[in-house]
Write a structure and sequence with these properties.
globular; alpha/beta; 40% helix; 15 strands; 7-stranded mixed β-sheet; 2 domains; Rossmann fold
Length: 422
């Protein structure tokens, strides 16, 4: 396991030389300890492939943080997996077990339908049991309510939310004259509903000539045959499909479109997620686009060593940069706080700026939403700027537009209540 950490040393060495590292070096060293992080996501069920893949992401991230001593000498990190099965009820049951095991940090990302009740339960736990406080590192659940109306001090979002991503997508689409008739197909839970809502609102403002010719919501992880939806999209005369689907709901949707010969363009959030590039294949070349905060063919890509090592080691794609950012920021916060105490770490992380692999990142203090650039990319034949193909398909993602942090940022309505500062 440590081979990966050694191979990635150059990629993360700059973090060890950060201002926080220098400050800690001058002060008293933290006692040697292992900081455990609960990984609370589906490891079985319809989204197991995604969950198992991202578990490996976090295991590699903690190897790097431990071997590079990002939190200071003698501070190691360990991922403890918990299978939520994609169920909010199961996740809340496991949260009690996590608290009983005195694990103070939880990472979760597969589904805002899990993240919202989990965030609320963590806040209640921390109010009632301050000695067993838990910090929620949300790497991928992107319902904007998590950092707006439902924000709380203990929740930190490392992915761009649905509104931020749709702002970026529609900024790109407004210059695409071929986009005329749009069909919205999304999963029937908070993230999917928000994706559809923002698509309609932002297109009506930026491209009032565009028609929404159809809209569907599919039950999360339950549809096995998307051909009836493809028929509806074709009958509606859609030239463009916008979808926030992920995991098996995107793989099967794209596969059905391919099998039916649907020629509409797809604008997605998660075309890079495991299994999806294979489902897209050649039929989706130059027709599938994605908004993301990272992909492997970004020019002068500092995260390339992690990507290369991960793909060689596991034979799978590395695409969740937030797995690294969340662990690296946690480690840096522990270093700066001079403590692994969750309250001290949360206060340190709130508003923290640091050098990430892709440049400076900031955990905005008002809502705990990470501020970072976004990219629009197109799935196309490998070669030239497409150095890496995805899942050995011969096709990969090419950057169409880079959106700087200040443009990708959106306002927040968060009115955060904070505990007494330690």
């Amino acid at each position: 396991m440590m081979r990966a950490a050694g191979a990635l040393a150059l990629a993360v060495a700059a973090l060890a030389a950060s201002p926080g590292a220098a400050a800690q070096a001058k002060g008293a060293a933290l006692p040697a300890q292992t900081v455990r992080i609960a990984y609370l996501d589906p490891l079985s069920g319809p989204f197991a492939a995604v969950g198992q893949n991202i578990l490996k992401h976090f295991q590699v991230a903690t190897e790097i943080a431990s071997s590079r001593q990002l939190a200071g000498p003698g501070i190691k990190f360990e991922i403890v997996p918990f299978d939520s099965k994609g169920s909010p009820q199961e996740a809340l049951t496991l949260l009690r077990a996590i608290a009983d095991q005195r694990i103070h940090y939880v990472v979760q990302g597969q589904g805002s339908h899990v993240a919202i009740p989990l965030s609320e339960a963590i806040a209640r736990n921390n109010e009632r049991n301050p000695g067993q406080a838990i910090v929620f590192l949300n790497y991928a659940a992107i319902d904007p309510d998590l950092t707006n109306s439902k924000c709380n001090f203990w929740h930190f979002a490392f992915d761009a939310n649905s509104e931020m991503k749709m702002e970026a997508l529609t900024d790109y689409m407004k210059g695409r004259a071929e986009v005329k008739n749009v069909y919205l197909l999304n999963q029937n839970y908070s993230h999917g509903q928000q994706t559809a809502r923002f698509a309609k609102e932002l297109l009506s403002r930026k491209r009032p000539d565009v028609k929404i010719v159809g809209e569907d919501f599919v039950p999360l992880g339950q549809v096995r045959d998307f051909s009836p939806y493809i028929a509806k999209i074709r009958a509606a005369g859609a030239d463009t499909v916008i979808t926030g689907n992920w995991g098996t709901d995107l793989v099967l949707f794209v596969r059905a479109a391919r099998d039916a010969g649907l020629t509409a363009s797809f604008y997605t959030y998660y075309a890079g997620v495991i299994g999806t590039p294979t489902a897209i294949g050649a039929s989706g070349a130059d027709r599938v686009r994605m908004v993301s905060y990272w992909h492997p063919n970004i020019e002068n890509n500092p995260a390339e060593p992690i990507y290369v090592d991960f793909t060689k080691r596991f034979g799978e794609e590395w695409y969740v940069l937030a797995s690294y950012n969340s662990v690296a920021m946690l480690a840096e916060a522990i270093r700066r706080a001079g403590s692994a105490d969750p309250l001290k770490v949360a206060y340190t992380m709130s508003g923290m700026k640091m050098k990430g692999l892709m440049g400076e990142i900031e955990m905005r203090s008002t809502d705990h939403q990470l501020q970072q650039p976004l990219y629009i990319s197109t799935f196309t034949k490998a070669g030239g700027p497409v150095k890496f193909d995805a899942e050995k398909t011969g096709f990969g993602f090419r950057t169409e537009k880079a959106i700087p942090t200040y443009v990708a940022s959106t306002p927040t309505s968060c009115n955060m209540q904070r505990p007494a500062k330690p």
